[in-house]
Amino acid sequence: MSRTSPLPLAIVTGGARGIGRGIADRLARDGFEVIVLDRDGASARKAAEEIAAGGGVARAVALDLLDSAGIAAFVEAERPVAALVNNAGIFDERAFFDLTIEDFRRMYDVNLIALFALSQAVARRMAPGAKIVNIASRAFLGARNHAHYVASKAAVVGLTRAMAMELASRGILVNAIAPGLIDTPLLQALSPERMAAQLALQPTGKAGRPADIANAVSFLAAPEMDFITGQVLLVDGGKSLGGGMGI
Ligand SMILES: NC(=O)c1ccc[n+]([C@@H]2O[C@H](COP(=O)([O-])OP(=O)(O)OC[C@H]3O[C@@H](n4cnc5c(N)ncnc54)[C@H](O)[C@@H]3O)[C@@H](O)[C@H]2O)c1
Fold it and tell me: Does residue 115 have its Cβ closer than 6 Å to ligand 1?
């Protein structure tokens, strides 16, 4: 689709697979022209082709979000964006005493600083009514064995709140979604034992699907959504309620 497409434009980062793919599918069904942005260009192209085959309007952009010059060139070449979904992220498991400064930096570079860089570039050209939805994680509340991930996602929540305050005067609404356990390739970093332990903590007893997150994104990105900003919506099957048995 060309820049003359009449549809509102959405960007979904990390849209080639997992949660991002579910979000891209949903926003295309909602009537957005969707840019499936991913460092995995081949999978992004396949996703865009499948969305188009299903009747949606989508195209792929191969970009590693660690490439700040690439971000600037990409944003400059596009028309203003109606909905930016910052979904791309990385995850791995490491006990606190095994973590290195490099582990921490790598996690922050992708999960936080790339999100900031793209949001700043895109928001400069957004029109009033535009939306930004950041995919954080329920882990921002705390979790064992991935302190670097937890800290990066808590920082995404803080950044969301700060962006919401500064961008409100431009009519841009910024919210975050904090998914719980969602069945995607990202969870391959969890051992089978850890996966079973995680599922046991779910009040609903199951992992969510990308479509569950996409449903929440659809709500927060919708053109008619006009009065929610700076919020964090937990989509976690109730895990954040805690596991208390009584008092
Ligand atoms: N799966 C879960 O249980 C879960 C839970 C909470 C939060 N999340 C968050 O949801 C988001 C998506 O997770 P997922 O499970 O779908 O992950 P995933 O690993 O299945 O997919 C992530 C996608 O992001 C892309 N990506 C990663 N780094 C990139 C970069 N530098 N530039 C461009 N693209 C990049 C990958 O190529 C991949 O296509 C992440 O931010 C993750 O932290 C996931």
Answer: no
